[in-house]
Specification:
By secondary structure, the chain is of the alpha+beta class. It has seven helices and eleven strands. A hairpin with a 2-residue loop joins strand 9 and strand 10. Pfam families: DUF1062.
Length: 202
């Protein structure tokens, strides 16, 4: 039983920013995946460029402000210069960056896919208590409750039954609806209880 069971959440887009546009009546901005760099003597400013979803008016989200150029690693500087998409996404999802800029994002605007083993694979894993590792490189407040429903194909009532019977747990604790996924978190499935509740009891 050396196989690792993984539920991998893959974001399909970056979250929209909740921000009033000064040029139109829109209140959402999307990430352009592009950076703006402005060097002054030995200092540099770096922004991630956002655009209004309606009129394309720009908003520059600060990444670095008046920092010494040599304080940024050469590798990272090249990524900024080349508008590296992966780097743009890291900052677009960054809670620290949003806090620094005093902006909030629209978590519900993020679409995603989840790659996961089939229910048959899980039920026939050979485990009594099966650990499933969550992988999600970006944080967009997705709830553990929602991921479990999708990956196990459960109704709300059936999922609640499983939680009440301790057939499912997260990080060794009873699952709460407020629990949000985190990269490397583990959901535990009691296979026998799962079978009894989902199949023998209809």
């Amino acid at each position: 039983m050396s196989q690792q069971y993984i539920w991998e959440v893959k974001a399909k887009n970056t979250p929209l920013l909740k921000k009033k546009c000064s040029h139109c009546n829109s209140d959402r901005f999307y990430c352009s995946d592009k950076f703006r760099l402005n060097a002054q003597k030995k200092n540099i400013d770096i922004w991630l460029i956002y655009r209004c979803v309606q009129c394309k008016n720009t908003f520059n989200m600060t990444i670095f402000s008046r920092v010494r150029t040599e304080s940024i690693s050469k590798t990272l500087f090249i990524k900024f210069s080349e508008n590296n998409t992966e780097t743009a996404w890291e900052y677009a999802f960054s809670l620290e960056t949003r806090r620094k800029n005093n902006v909030e994002y629209d978590a519900e605007s993020v679409e995603y896919d989840i790659q996961h083993p089939t229910l048959d694979d899980i039920l026939n894993s050979g485990y009594e208590i099966l650990p499933v590792t969550l992988k999600s490189p970006f944080d967009f407040s997705l709830k553990v409750y929602s991921v479990i429903r999708i990956c196990l194909g459960l109704s709300v009532s059936k999922l609640n039954q499983l939680i009440e019977a301790d057939a499912l747990s997260f990080q060794g604790k009873s699952i709460q609806k407020s629990h949000r996924i985190k990269d490397g978190g583990i959901v535990y499935i009691d296979i026998e209880k799962f079978r009894n509740i989902c199949f023998e009891n209809g």
